[in-house]
């Protein structure tokens, strides 16, 4: 009975292999979608059932992770050790797929196929395998790029910082920080470059529950930047960072020089730090504006263009001619100008000069601060999930050389969620009132700036309306116009409104 059963099974398999070479090839390729299906069609029921079950299990696990465990997937994608395991797992799965495809075709291929048909079928199967191998290599390359980015840019347990807060709950850090303040630095640093200055100093103050973000720009020529009481730097500079016996204008004591000058001349007063210049600015800006700065993100302006290029450019409104290059002090004119116009799409180089250009621009520093805020807004809008995924390898490569930060790896998943909230929330600007609070950079009115910031971030609640009373006859009063808000949404501030 057993011998007849085996003979019958062989007969059925032989009959199945009477199909044409094209149909066998098509069935084998269809089997790529569900590995093991080709085995069932070839009559290998037991092994085919095992492989189909395994394949369906893998599909089900992937769907479950994508739909029900997205937070865990994000956490794994930001863990260098797990990313390495993902690369290995991806290789194993690809090898499984290719092996099943090749062996399925061998079992489905007609016994009577001639050399030409065999060669053609093998060539098609080889091309499919090559496509699968290429996709696997691209996936592995992306995972390795992600791993290198996390390891190189984001700080680990061994990093040194004098200002980074201690996180009590890495899964939900925003319960500890309902408002997160990040110092954004644009620096002209790079390999072989000395005398680094921070051309751009901004604060992003984020409501972590809603994603609403307020941007605050600081002027580069502020002097007498304070340090917190009780620190060695405050003891050295009790009235702020400046030379009381020096000239009125002291460029080496400007805000944009602190990143370089304080560590160069007073390194022993800072303490252990991976980036002493950034720690100095975090301490000083925090004290000046009355905001606890939790982290910093520093972008190398010389490579900023690479980041914008990786995103495919940005779109901004240009309201006046913006110089590309030029030097006011040396009277060197710019090489060209960015012409005014709505919805101007800028490549990396033009985006950099849109954010930096100042040659003979009226109110150069304030105008540049405004354009920098609009640049940040344009980048946030451009960084859609689809665009980031499509250009991820270029973005990861750019990020490795462009960005420095003290944001720890342990809370990166929470930052991914926060980033989505920021995209959906409003971005506003806090105007520190240059005419009133810092008409020159020699002695800015930090107390008044702190008050403005608190009024914006913590507006007073409206009092309950009084109970109605009988109106008294009075002469008609002139209605005062409703004052315009001093902190407009960036969508309004960055709109096309040419000034000629």
UniProtKB/TrEMBL annotation:
Biased composition (Pro residues): 460-474
Segments forming domain Cell envelope-related transcriptional attenuator: 197-383
Membrane-spanning residues: 21-41, 47-68, 80-99, 119-140
Gene3D superfamilies: LCP protein
Cross-referenced InterPro entries: LytR/CpsA/Psr_CW_biosynth (IPR050922), LytR_CpsA_psr (IPR004474)
Protein origin, superkingdom: Bacteria
Region spans: Disordered: 455-500
Keywords: Membrane, Transmembrane, Transmembrane helix
Similarity comment: family membership: Belongs to the LytR/CpsA/Psr (LCP) family.
Alphabetical list of PANTHER family matching this protein: POLYISOPRENYL-TEICHOIC ACID--PEPTIDOGLYCAN TEICHOIC ACID TRANSFERASE TAGU
Identification of the protein by name: Cell envelope-related transcriptional attenuator domain-containing protein
Organism in which the protein naturally occurs: Kribbella yunnanensis
């Amino acid at each position: 009975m057993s011998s007849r059963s085996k003979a019958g099974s062989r007969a059925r398999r032989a009959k199945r292999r009477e199909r044409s070479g094209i149909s066998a090839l098509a069935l084998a390729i269809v089997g790529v979608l569900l590995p093991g299906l080709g085995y069932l069609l070839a009559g290998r029921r037991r092994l085919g059932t095992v492989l189909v079950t395994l394949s369906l299990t893998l599909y089900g696990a992937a769907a479950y992770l994508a739909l029900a465990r997205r937070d865990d997937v994000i956490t794994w994608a930001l863990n260098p050790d797990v990313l390495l395991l993902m690369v290995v797992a991806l290789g194993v799965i690809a090898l499984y797929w290719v092996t099943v495809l090749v062996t399925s075709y061998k079992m489905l291929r007609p016994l009577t196929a001639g050399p030409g048909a065999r060669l053609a079928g093998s060539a098609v199967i080889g091309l499919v395998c090559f496509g699968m191998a290429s996709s696997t290599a691209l996936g592995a390359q992306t995972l390795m790029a992600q791993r290198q980015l996390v390891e190189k840019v984001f700080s680990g347990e061994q990093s040194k910082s004098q200002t980074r807060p201690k996180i009590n709950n890495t899964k939900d850090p925003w319960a500890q920080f309902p408002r997160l303040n990040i110092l954004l630095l644009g620096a002209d640093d790079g390999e072989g470059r000395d005398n680094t200055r921070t051309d751009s100093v901004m604060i992003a103050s984020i409501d972590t529950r809603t994603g609403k973000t307020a941007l605050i720009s600081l002027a580069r020529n502020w002097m007498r930047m304070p340090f917190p009481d009780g620190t060695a730097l405050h003891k050295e500079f009790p009235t702020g960072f400046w030379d009381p016996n020096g000239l009125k204008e002291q460029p080496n004591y400007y805000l944009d020089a602190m990143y370089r000058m304080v560590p160069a001349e007073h390194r022993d007063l800072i303490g252990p730090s991976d980036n002493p210049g950034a720690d100095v600015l975090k301490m000083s800006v925090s004290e000046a504006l009355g905001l606890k700065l939790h982290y910093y993100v520093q972008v190398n302006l010389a490579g900023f263009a690479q980041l914008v290029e990786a995103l495919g450019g940005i779109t901004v409104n240009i309201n006046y001619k913006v110089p590309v290059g030029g030097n006011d002090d040396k009277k060197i004119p710019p090489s060209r100008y960015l012409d005014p116009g709505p919805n101007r799409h800028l490549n990396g180089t033009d985006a950099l000069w849109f954010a930096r250009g100042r040659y003979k621009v009226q109110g150069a520093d304030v105008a540049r601060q405004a354009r920098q805020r609009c640049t940040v807004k344009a980048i946030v809008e451009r960084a859609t999930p689809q665009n980031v995924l499509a250009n991820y390898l270029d973005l990861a490569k750019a990020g490795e050389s462009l960005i420095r930060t003290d944001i720890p790896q342990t809370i990166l998943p929470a930052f991914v969620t926060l980033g989505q909230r920021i995209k959906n929330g409003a971005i506003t600007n806090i105007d520190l009132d240059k005419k009133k609070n810092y008409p020159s950079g020699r002695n800015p009115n930090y107390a008044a700036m702190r008050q403005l910031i608190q009024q914006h971030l913590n507006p007073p609640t409206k009092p309950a309306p009084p109970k109605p009373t009988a109106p008294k006859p009075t002469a008609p009063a002139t209605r005062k116009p409703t004052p315009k808000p001093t902190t407009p949404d960036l969508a309004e501030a960055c709109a096309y409104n040419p000034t000629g």
